[in-house]
Design brief:
This protein has about 260 residues and is an all-alpha fold. The protein has twelve helices and two strands; from the N terminus they run αααββααααααααα. Helices cover about 80% and strands about 0% of the residues.
């Protein structure tokens, strides 16, 4: 299994570096730039939660009557991650999911959160992603990012769901971005404190500990099945490519708005 993990890591390393060193981070120079970033990124925060809950549904018993399901170690791994992601604490010690915490950060800094609210409200009522995308006027790259995640969700293959969760999500926000946000927080603490806290929690909760748990979960699911590991590798590559496309579109939009403002 270690060889299979090493193979995936070797294959995706150029893509990971492209994401970590992406020019979008350098383009975020003020609050307006950060607001725009958040209006796109919030879709990735939301679909992360959907992917997480899919794993919990597939790997544990979430129905009644209850029966033991799957491997107890895997049940433990996903349940521990869910606790941290779905019921963390905010700045005031109140229990909130990371998605709700992100919405609080958007509200505090003045980012437009109406589109993501329209998206989730419409989806909750209609159950149809396409309808929700249309009603919310979801940006193209965000729509394609979420759509691919749901393709994997609907594959009913937990080992693929775990793979893109493990290799495509956990540690892709670089230290450069944290530095940018920290600098902004010094200038605008009343606007950035919740977002800075969100990032700090991301490091503390989603960093080494959750990454280790997720990797063990993926290893448990793929076991020694070569075809599973190969599928997992291909799914992870596409997931990272979708992330790069999302970052590309955010960077393009920030640049475009600055050019408009300058004229």
């Amino acid at each position: 299994m270690n060889e299979a993990v090493d193979q995936i890591r070797k294959r995706i390393e150029p893509l990971r570096q492209e994401i970590i060193q992406h020019k979008v981070y350098e383009s975020i120079n003020d609050l307006d730039d950060l607001k725009l970033f958040m209006q796109y990124h919030v879709y990735a925060v939301w679909d992360f939660m959907s992917l997480l809950k899919t794993l919990q549904n597939n790997l544990t018993c979430t129905s009644v009557p209850w029966f033991p399901k799957g491997n107890a170690d895997t049940r433990y791994l996903i349940n521990e991650i869910v606790v941290g992601e779905e019921s963390d604490i905010d700045l005031n010690g109140n229990r909130k999911s990371h998605f709700e915490l992100y919405l609080d950060a958007m509200k505090q800094c003045g980012a437009d959160y109406q589109n993501i609210n329209t998206f989730t409200n419409t989806l909750q009522k209609s159950g149809d992603l396409k309808t929700a995308f249309t009603q919310a006027n979801t940006p193209l790259a965000a729509k394609e990012f979420v759509s691919y995640t749901f393709d994997i969700i609907e594959s009913n293959k937990p080992y693929l769901q775990s793979a893109i969760f493990t290799f495509g999500r956990e540690d892709l926000i670089p230290s450069m971005f944290h530095s940018i946000v920290s600098d902004m927080h010094q200038k605008f603490p009343e606007s950035i404190s919740v977002f800075k806290y969100y990032l700090d929690r991301h490091i503390e909760i989603d960093g080494d500990h959750h990454s280790h748990l997720a990797l063990q979960m993926t290893s448990n699911l793929c076991e020694f099945k070569t075809e599973y590991w190969k599928e997992a590798e291909e799914a992870t590559v596409i997931s990272l490519q979708k992330r790069i496309a999302l970052w590309d579109e955010i960077h393009h939009e920030i640049k475009r708005k600055k050019e408009v403002s300058a004229n």
